[in-house]
Amino acid sequence: MQERVTMTDVARAAGVSTATVSYVLSGKRPVAPATRTAVEAAITELGFTVNTAARSLRTGQSTLVALIVPDIANPFFAQLAAALQEELRGLGLHVIVCNTRADRREERALLAEAVQQRFAGVVITPFRLLPRDIEVLGRAGIPTVISADVPFGPVDLVTPDARTATRQALERVTAAKRRRIAMIAGPRDATGGDPRLELLRNLARQFGTSLPGDLVVRGEHTREAGAEGFARLMSRRYRPDAVFCANDMVAVGALDKANELGVGIPGEVALVGHDDASFASLVRPQLTTIRYPAEDVGRAAARLLKERLDGRSVHRTVRVKAEFLARDSA
Amino acid sequence: MQERVTMTDVARAAGVSTATVSYVLSGKRPVAPATRTAVEAAITELGFTVNTAARSLRTGQSTLVALIVPDIANPFFAQLAAALQEELRGLGLHVIVCNTRADRREERALLAEAVQQRFAGVVITPFRLLPRDIEVLGRAGIPTVISADVPFGPVDLVTPDARTATRQALERVTAAKRRRIAMIAGPRDATGGDPRLELLRNLARQFGTSLPGDLVVRGEHTREAGAEGFARLMSRRYRPDAVFCANDMVAVGALDKANELGVGIPGEVALVGHDDASFASLVRPQLTTIRYPAEDVGRAAARLLKERLDGRSVHRTVRVKAEFLARDSA
Predict the structure, then answer these.
(1) Distance from CA of B81 to the nearest CA of A (A)
(2) Mapped to the 3 state alphabet, what secondary structure does chain B carry?
(3) Where does the record place the HTH lacI-type domain (chains A, B) (predicted)?
């Protein structure tokens, strides 16, 4: 390793105080543009990295925060990662993204890695993990935030409040006289069941309808599973006239299949996604979806992590409001 | 940490040989379905992870392979990451994705992290790094693969062969009597210049046309920069009738702006992307693009890494063939 350049070296080279260097790095206070440029030039010239500062947060620990997700190909998680990184940069922490492919063995192996590498923090969207699997992180003293639809043991949680948005989606669909509501839900063995399905089912009753068993199909949270699920629904004797999807990846798969089968969206079947992933407005028809703002989730997770690093010990839950986005598919 | 479960423990619990356990893990030889199920059940029950095996590859080293990319929101890199992970899983290695936002300071900080954490390998698409920045990895003995359009010092390289595909794109565009060819290229300070622009410029001459200076605009490899670049091109006195883009993110941004300005694609302007990112076939019109197959790039990078882990010391370059995909936008 090369010798470490310190913040004092940077301050001296730029002709400013170390406090000013710190403000430039953290963004916590405004710095005059000329001063900022001088500091950034010194940082580049000297090859300064903020690792030293971050390391002192938790001696001997890495500056890496692992974001462990079930599907790296889902842009929702890329957006979440970017927001998390943005918030943690001022602390000299780096976000790395780990893909579990919704596989419990992979999920557990990555938790073991996080412990062995003494990561500075873990943000995880569990898919098949059990709450007890997470305990290794707590025992190792690694700050942990769960991003999930349901609580996951005694640990910090960022979770959606999607009740109002789901009700609005049902309002729109039933106002168009659709009554045969279906869902392409997640797999039966996902941890915590399928809260999006349960919420939809509960609310559907208030609209005088229901989701009968044969209108609920299950699969992974992927485009392929969405196509397959939609095909199965279309083979039912009583075809649904509205299909809710576990997320937007699934909804895009359903759209693929609808095009293939010549099923009109939204003419014959209204389609509702979940998340508002980046491509939701790119597809045609544009996806009507229940927006779960990835940036807000990332920022909330970062705040919870920071509080842990600052010594907070009680567990907190942050609810992030979902929002119904009526576009063209429903 | 919990006590480590070994492969022998798994073999005993499943009633098979350790070689069979190893085949199930690596996928190197076929295993009867019933045997595979028994082994997988034992693995899950005992909570076995393959870290132990992978660690012995390079004693004291992490099982993490870092994929360092300029833009995690670009699905090209998610596809690359998934293919890399698929190939390396058999070795008990985990791929983590690190986002540099095309920022040289971030790129360097992540290289420093890779060294400090003793990563098992690094695959990197540099954006503003200089070849000498990479040398820290070599000094630390960390197997490194560069994925880039140009060589990057004495190190393993995966690089596109896009000459034929670019020529085919130009053929299609000029056959439609388009002569005012433009490009939304990368930023001027990107490492290695802009090989995609140079290739296009060289080939354009063979078609009796050229890319005049005012028809080359520059920006980051993002959707926002694509929109901005397209707007600038449309404000030229002699508007282009064909626009090539640095990648598909840029092309989608150009499409956004074309819709906003009411510019017909491909009627008024033909639009050609690069990469065939997952959304290229989702947008309307579907994106005509020069496909650079992310899966092949990931697999090639994995092979080069494996050979390094096995002791190969000479540098290798693998060229991955790009392919012209004529869809609807050009």
Answers:
(1) 8
(2) CCCCCCHHHHHHHHCCCHHHHHHHHHCCCCCCHHHHHHHHHHHHHHCCCCHHHHHHHCCCCCCEEEEEECCCCCHHHHHHHHHHHHHHHHHCCEEEEEECCCCHHHHHHHHHHHHHCCCCEEEECCCCCCHHHHHHHHHCCCCEEEECCCCCCCCEEEEEECHHHHHHHHHHHHHCCCCCEEEEECCCCCCCCCHHHHHHHHHHHHCCCCCCHHHEEECCCCHHHHHHHHHHHHCCCCCCCEEEECCHHHHHHHHHHHHHHCCCCCCCCEEEEEECCHHHHCCCCCCEEEECCHHHHHHHHHHHHHHHHCCCCCCCEEEEECEEECCCCC
(3) 5-59
Q: Cβ–Cβ of B75/A73 closer than 8 Å? A: yes
Counted residue by residue, chain B has a size of 330
Phi, then psi, of A152 in degrees rounded to 5: -140, 60
B184–chain A nearest CA distance, Å = 20
Q: Do B2 and A136 touch (CB under 8 A)?
A: yes
CA distance B114 to chain A (A): 10
> Going edge to edge, which strands form the sheet with A121-124?
A317-321, A156-161, A144-147, A121-124, A64-69, A94-99, B94-99, B64-69, B121-124, B144-147, B156-161, B317-321
Residue B310 domain boundaries: 57-159+294-320
Burial B71-80 (b: 16+ CB within 10 A, else e): bbbbbbbbbb
Same domain, A188 and A247: yes
Residue carrying the six token digits 């300029």: B70
| Alpha carbon distance A219, A235 (integer Å) | 16
What is the rounded distance in angstroms from the CA atom of residue B325 to the CA atom of residue B291?
6
Task: Examine residue A325 and state whether it is found in any structural domain, yes or no.
Answer: no
**Do A155 and A194 belong together in one domain?**
no
Q: Which residues pair with A70 in a beta bridge?
A: none
Asked, for residue A133, whether it belongs to a domain, the answer is yes
Question: How many structural domains compose chain A?
Answer: 3
Token pair recorded at residue B260: 């906003």
The ipTM estimated for the assembled molecules is 0.75
Of B47, B75, B96, Cβ closest to residue A97: B96
Pick from B247, B123, B227: nearest CA to B186: B247
Specify whether the CB–CB gap between B180 and B239 falls below 8 A: yes
Residue B237 token pair: 């006195």
Per-residue pLDDT in tens (0 to 9) along chain B, 330 residues = 335 677 888 888 888 988 888 777 766 677 887 888 788 778 767 766 654 334 434 345 688 999 999 998 899 999 999 999 999 988 889 899 999 999 999 999 999 989 988 899 999 999 999 999 999 999 999 999 999 999 988 899 999 999 999 999 999 999 999 999 999 999 999 988 899 999 999 999 999 999 999 999 999 999 999 999 999 999 999 999 999 999 999 999 999 999 999 999 999 999 999 999 988 988 889 999 999 999 999 999 999 999 999 889 899 999 999 999 999 999
Q: In the beta sheet, which residues pair with residue B95?
A: B65
Q: Let me know whether A68 and A169 are in one domain.
A: no
Taking each helix axis from N to C end, the angle separating B104-116 and A33-46, rounded to the nearest 10 degrees, works out to 40
State how beta strands B216-218 and A64-69 pair.
Answer: unpaired
CB contact under 8 A, A73 and B73: no
Contacts of A98 in chain B (CB under 8 A): 94-97
Tokens for B24, please give them.
């199930």
The two tokens of residue A215 are: 């209108």
Candidate from A85, A99, A136 with C-beta closest to B99: A85
Say if A307 falls within a structural domain: yes
pTM to 2 decimal places = 0.79
